[in-house]
Design goal:
This protein has about 110 residues and is α+β, with helices and mostly antiparallel strands. The protein has two helices and five strands; from the N terminus they run ββαββαβ. The chain is globular, with a radius of gyration of 15 Å. It starts with about 20 loop residues before the first strand and ends with a strand.
Length: about 110
Amino acid sequence: MPVKAISEYKFPSKSRQELYGDDQLVHVWWKDNPWFCAAACFRAPRAMPWSDFWSALVVPFFEEDPDWSPDQQFAFSIDGTPVEPKATDTFADIGLVHKGVLAMVRA
């Protein structure tokens, strides 16, 4: 979403991709979950396989929800476009860019 400034903004973003090297910021939003009302932000290597990202970062965070079940299935989307990540997919493979939002809903 563009920002309207009252004057010229001459400062580089403090969270631009080039500051993160081989990593990127990924926002994960569990839609319709009252326990997590906003997206969580994770820093992860761009080349990290989906299965590692899911099991090492996402699951430990979201399992704090008392209704979490390790067997539950999710449907994922990026900017409203459905995606089905495979275990070996990277962020680039599924089209997830730096500071992108990956939304998930119970399937």
